[in-house]
User: What shape does this take?
Amino acid sequence: MSSDFVEDAKAEITGMAKGGMRHPSTKPVLTGAAVGAVAGLLLPVVSIPAGLAIGAGYAFYKRLRP
Assistant: This one.
């Protein structure tokens, strides 16, 4: 991973923390977390917390690198 990605992620997380629900990335990341949690509930090999983290991480990554 390049330092560009790390810097972009840092800026995005800071913006989400300061902007809360008004930040454009917050809702898609929370939606990804919810979808991951449901997948964790339905799939026997993935726990709910793992699904939540994976879903949020994937949505966050797709916001940075579409």
